[in-house]
Structures are given as C-alpha cells and as structure tokens.
C-alpha cells in the first residue's frame, strides 16, 4: 500500500491461465502515464489488501474456468464474500469496476466475473465504472481495449469524488457544500482530454504506448495491387497507417546457464495443490476404421496401486509434454541446440521495473533448458499481442518488424484475429514466418503461458472395472496452411497416440508369449471431479443421454455403473434410460457397437443412432444429426423431463451439436406444453437451475 493515496487505486486479478493477469499488468503499466498508481495483487493474496476497509476505487479483472466457475485463484475470495451472514451493507463503502473474461462458446459466459459482480452488488458495493464482459470466442481485445480506454476518466472522477467527500468532512457548512455543484465537473474537460488522448508517450523511451510510423519510415516496398494480406504481408490501409501498439512490458526474468550436473524436478511439482499419480497404460484400442475422418482411441489405465478415485461423469487431467521434435526445432532456431541438456537457473532480474516481479510458479528455479521447454511452457500457445510487441524488439529485418508491429496494433486487430488467432498460429510458426526474429530465452519464459494439463472425461465405472480407468479421445489434427507449413497433431493426443503405438501395433519384440506388453508406458494424472455431471442419486429417476462421436465417452461409464447396480440390487427400481448417438459413418466410426449389449440386458432402454454421411435409398431420408432424432421423440422427451422429473445429459461439441440439441429441446417443450418459445426457454432455464439439464461440452 505504498502508492500515493490521492492517486491510488487497488487493482485485483483472478486468473486461471494468465489472461487476467496479463490484462491487469497492462492496466498497471498504463496507469503511470495517466498520473495514477495501481496497487496490484492477485485476488488470492488477501493478506495484502482488505476490501472491508478499502477507501480507494477497486478494479477487478477476473476470468472464468471450467463450465462457469471462478478461477482457482478466486475460490477462497468467492467463498468469503458468499458468506450468508454478511450484512447487506457490508461493502457499502466500496466503489469498483469489473472486467470479466469468458468464452461465449460455453453456456455460462463470464460466470466467474458475473458471480463476483452480483455478490458485491448484493453487499452494497457501487460501480464507479460499468462492468465489461470480454469474449475470447471473438477476441478479448474487442471489449478489453475500449474498456481500458474508458477506465482512466472513470477512475479520476471517482478519485475526485472521494477527495470531495473527504474535504466536506472538514468544512463547517457541510450542508451548503453538499448542495453546491460537484467541483469535478469543472475539471472534466481536462480529464476527458487526458483519457481520450490515447497516443501516450512513455517519457521518450522505447516502451512508448504508441508507435506512429509512415510506411516509408522503414523502407517498406509498396505491395503490388493484387497482393492479398497474409501473416507476413499487409495491404492498405493497415500498411500505410500510423500504429497504436501496446506498451513494451519491462523484462523481469534472468536465465543463467550452470552446466550439466543435477536432477530435474519431479512431475508432481508441475501441479500446484493437487495429488498426482503415475499410472501405466495397460490397453489401447483404435475404435475407428483406418479410413475414418477422425481417429478415435480408447486407453485403459491401471489405477489399482493408487488411491485415485472417481465417479462416472468425472474428468481427470493428464500431464503431457510438448512434442520432442518441436522442442528440438525451437532450440535450433534459438541457437541453443548444444545447450538443451544444460541446467539453467531462473531468477528475477535485478533492477527490473516490473511491479511485484517473481519467477513464474510453473518454472522451476533450476532445471535443464529442455525440461522447461518440454514440460513447463505452452510452446503451441497462440501468442498474445504483448508477446508480439516484445518480439518486435528482437527482429532485425525492417519489413518483418513493421508487420509484427501491425499485428499487435489496434489498426491491425482484424489481421491479428484472421492470421494468428483464428489460424491457431503458434510461437514456432511465427519464428518460421519471421526468420530475423531472434528472441532471448527470458522472453519465452516471461510470455509463454504454462503448459496446461489436458482434461478428459472418464469412460468407465470403478464398480464395473475395479482398478481401471478408461477414456476416449480423437487424435486432434491441425492441417497445414499458409501460416503453418507443416501439419501437426494435438499436443496431448498426438503424444498419447505415439506413446501407445506399440500397444496398437505390437511387434514380436514387445510381446511375451501371452501377448502382454513387457513394460507398459506410464503417464501422470490427477483428478478433476465433476460436481454435477453424475447419475441421478435416485436410480428410479429416468434420464436421457445425448453423446455423438467421442461425446459418448462418459455415458459408457454411466451404463457400466448402472449395469453393475442392476446386478447387485435386483430389488431396486430403475428408471428408463435413453441414449442418442451419432457419427459420420456406421461402418467407420460407430465407436461402441457393443451398446447393443446394454440394450439386450436391459441396462439401456432406448438406443437411437444416426449417421450423418451415409447415403440412404429410403424414400424418406433418415435424420442426420442427434438433434433431428430427438425431435422424432418429442412426446417421450417431454414426458421424461416434465412429468417424471428426469435428467437430460449432453456431452460433445458445443457449437455444432449442443446448441442444436438445446434448440430442439426448447421446440419440444414449446410444442408439448402448447406454450410460446419464450416460456419454453424459461422451463429449460429452470431445468438447468435444478441441475437436471446438464452439459459437458467443449468448443
């Protein structure tokens, strides 16, 4: 709290993958140019701030994780403010502005920010600035940039009002003072001009907020008239514009090489506050035919020697490495091929201007360079604009430098979206596209995010297969494109596919006489329980499952569990079960043809399937998609949901399936209730609220 109390504001961030923190740091950096001082803290550091006594304006930047949860760093804070014993005026003294980050591909958009915002309002806090909700689906900067632009005027007005209130306490004629026009109005033109003048100078240093250059300043060759824009090529008006680019973040990491002696950290150190388990992969099955469009694999893990526990519907996470060839390629481009096995010491740079600088938690203090690039940094991450800004300073070719400036500028926002974000261009792709860019190792550590563990739905039941955990996934493919000269597989799915190749295609060298693998490969996992996506607690309640493609994964666990319960409890009453499954081709990617076994033994009451790419000779073409099939059973669906208080589960792709299913359910409810669409949508919202309409979806 060392900031000037007259120009100070409290800046809190709650981040899951680093987005909210990066935006908070941008606000902190810009604050100085506006004569303000941001007292910045992670929202989890509750020992460093106190909202109960906070008098200055508060700015909160908060992301959303999972299907609508606050980030892990905000859980303690959210739990604290949701204390039901807090009085309605608990935060009546507090004035705040909140920026929420989310993805509209998911149902509960920006719910982390909305949860905090709503609760602060309930406790009497007041907005000094309208809440902003940024959508990562279309580009966070579309909301973030203008929200930050308008923040400064709102902050200064809030601080002046605060000063006015403090001054009034010392004025004898308090009533007269309170009735007089607010003095901040007189200063408003000056404040407004300060905020609206976005082309800020940073005391003449190279970290200025705005770079204004004409095309001929850097000797660019004018593009031919028929030249199309691309990752490396711009056209007017961007190529001829003066540019507003982000501030250059101060460097804060120092890397020292220390030879080849030592040991790398244990994998468990890569995951904070979670227990990791090293388990063998004991079985791998390819569920799709070789000519299927996507390749789906089922893997079985042996968890019998661990205390790992799960329920059907839960998810778990796999700690995966970056592709070894890509790591070697990156080392080569950086000129560090000979130093990959050298140990490096990572520490905070002395004299850095970055406030509260610390070594990123996901970076070991001492490990080999190859360990950091393999297990710690997401080298496939789409580079943020702040990273592009830093890369400008590492680029020697004038044309390449200019293009990187454009891509991180406001004027080049659409180019950034089209050629980097939407094309899923990663750091390695950028280095290939801009060969004169030679970043230092510390920049990678400062700007590349943590390599996240990958989450998968459990596709088994511990009751049905004790000591086993199964899961299903498609091998993700990124085809080559102009910005990506080579095709790539998903970081985790590609690694897993390579890892289990001996199980899929065993050779004589890897098998013993029984056909078993001599030495099963092991992977590190940790639990990620799902609080709601579980079977109904009452087995007599009916439920409907919708899971096309690999979305069927958790429902295999549901059915296995239900079959075992039926065997163990013959006197129980079990509700009817529906499964809607779809895929492209019946003979290529019908993942679990053994579903008919569940149908035959009574575990599954109704199985409805569709095949979107198969041709049909029938007079009336069969439905192609699960949402089409569901409409054929409108009365049954309405009966289960409305009369029998049943459950409805959806798993799979959100945009191309889950939204269509939701629309179908709304139409069914509207038709069967003989109500308008709005009323049906309210009923669906009620089902969600009652946790009877549940989704496990991805974008």
UniProtKB/TrEMBL annotation:
GO cellular component: cytosol
GO molecular function: [methionine synthase] reductase (NADPH) activity; flavin adenine dinucleotide binding; FMN binding
An annotated GO BP: methionine biosynthetic process
Segments traversing the membrane: none
Catalytic activity: 2 cob(II)alamin + A + 2 H2O + 2 H(+) = 2 aquacob(III)alamin + AH2
EC number: 1.16.1.8
InterPro entries named among the record's database cross-references: CysJ-like_FAD-binding, FAD-bd_FR_type, Flavdoxin-like, Flavodoxin/NO_synth, Flavoprot_Pyr_Nucl_cyt_Rdtase, Flavoprotein-like_sf, FNR_nucleotide-bd, NADPH_Cyt_P450_Rdtase_alpha
Entry keywords, A to Z: Amino-acid biosynthesis, Cytoplasm, FAD, Flavoprotein, FMN, Methionine biosynthesis, NADP, Oxidoreductase, Phosphoprotein, S-adenosyl-L-methionine
Cofactor: FMN; FAD
Subcellular location, principal: cytoplasm
Subcellular location: Cytoplasm
Keyword Metal-binding: no
Top-rank lineage group of the source organism: Eukaryota
Assembly: Forms a multiprotein complex with MMACHC, MMADHC and MTR.
Protein name, entry field: Methionine synthase reductase
Originating organism: Pachyramphus minor
């Amino acid at each position: 709290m060392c900031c000037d109390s007259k120009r100070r504001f409290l800046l809190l961030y709650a981040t899951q993958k680093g987005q909210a923190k990066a935006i908070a740091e941008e606000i902190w950096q810009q604050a100085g140019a506006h004569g303000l001082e941001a007292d910045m803290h992670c929202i989890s550091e509750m020992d460093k701030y106190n909202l109960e006594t906070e008098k200055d304006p508060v700015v909160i930047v908060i992301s959303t994780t999972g299907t609508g949860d606050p980030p892990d760093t905000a859980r303690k804070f959210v739990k604290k403010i949701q204390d039901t014993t807090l009085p309605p005026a608990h935060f009546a003294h507090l004035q705040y502005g909140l920026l929420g980050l989310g993805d509209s591909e998911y149902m509960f958009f920006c719910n982390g920010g909305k949860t905090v915002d709503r609760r602060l309002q309930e406790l009497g806090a007041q907005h000094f600035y309208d809440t902003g909700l940024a959508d990562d689906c279309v580009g966070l900067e579309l909301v973030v940039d203008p929200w930050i632009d308008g923040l400064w005027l709102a902050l200064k007005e809030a601080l002046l009002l605060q000063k006015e209130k403090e001054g009034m306490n010392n004025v004898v004629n308090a009533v007269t003072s309170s009735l007089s026009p607010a003095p901040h109005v007189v200063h408003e033109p000056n404040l407004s001009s300060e905020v609206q003048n976005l082309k800020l100078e940073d005391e003449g240093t190279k970290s200025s907020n705005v770079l204004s250059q004409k095309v001929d300043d850097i000797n660019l060759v004018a593009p031919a008239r028929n030249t199309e824009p691309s990752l490396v090529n711009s056209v007017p008006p961007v190529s001829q514009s003066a540019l507003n680019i982000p501030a250059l973040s101060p460097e804060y990491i120092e890397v020292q090489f220390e030879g080849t002696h030592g040991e790398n950290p244990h994998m468990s150190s890569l995951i904070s506050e979670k227990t990791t388990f090293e388990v063998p992969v004991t079985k791998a099955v390819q569920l799709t035919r070789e000519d299927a469009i996507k390749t789906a694999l089922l893997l079985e893990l042996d968890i019998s020697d661990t205390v790992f526990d799960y329920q059907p519907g839960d998810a778990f996470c796999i700690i995966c490495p970056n592709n070894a060839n890509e790591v070697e390629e990156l080392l080569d481009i950086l000129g560090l091929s000979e130093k990959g096995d050298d140990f490096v010491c990572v520490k905070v740079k002395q004299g850095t201007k970055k406030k509260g600088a610390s070594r990123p938690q996901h970076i070991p203090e001492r490990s080999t360079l190859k360990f950091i690039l393999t297990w710690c940094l997401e080298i496939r991450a789409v580079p943020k604009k702040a990273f592009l800004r830093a890369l400008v300073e590492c680029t020697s070719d004038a044309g390449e430098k200019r293009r990187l400036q454009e891509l991180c500028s406001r004027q080049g926002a659409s180019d950034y979206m089209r050629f980097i974000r939407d094309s899923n261009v990663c750091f390695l792709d950028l280095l290939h596209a801009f060969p004169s860019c030679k970043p230092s190792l510390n920049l990678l550590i400062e700007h590349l995010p943590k390599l996240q563990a990958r989450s998968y739905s459990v596709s088994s039941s511990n009751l049905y297969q004790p000591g086993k955990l199964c899961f299903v996934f498609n091998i993700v493919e990124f085809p080559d494109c102009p910005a990506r000269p080579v095709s790539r597989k998903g970081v985790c799915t590609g690694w897993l596919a390579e890892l289990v190749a001996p199980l899929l295609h065993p050779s004589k060298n890897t098998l013993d006489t029984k056909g078993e693998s001599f030495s099963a490969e092991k992977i590190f996992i940790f639990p990620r329980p799902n609080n709601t996506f579980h079977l109904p607690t009452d087995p007599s309640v009916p439920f409907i499952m919708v899971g096309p493609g690999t979305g069927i994964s958790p429902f295999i666990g549901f059915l296995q569990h239900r079959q075992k319960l039926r065997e163990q409890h013959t006197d129980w009453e079990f509700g009817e079960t529906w499964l809607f499954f779809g895929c492209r081709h019946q003979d290529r990617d019908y993942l679990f043809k053994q579903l008919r076994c569940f149908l035959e033994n009574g575990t599954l009451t109704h199985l409805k399937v569709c095949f979107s790419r198969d041709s049909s000779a029938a007079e009336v073409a069969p439905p192609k998609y699960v949402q089409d099939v569901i409409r054929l059973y409108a009365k049954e669906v309405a009966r289960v949901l409305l009369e029998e208080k049943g459950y409805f589960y959806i798993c799979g792709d959100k945009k191309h399936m889950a939204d269509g299913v939701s629309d179908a359910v709304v139409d069914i409810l509207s038709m069967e209730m003989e109500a308008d669409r709005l009323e049906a949508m309210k009923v669906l919202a009620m089902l969600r609220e009652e946790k009877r309409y549940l989704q496990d979806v991805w974008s």
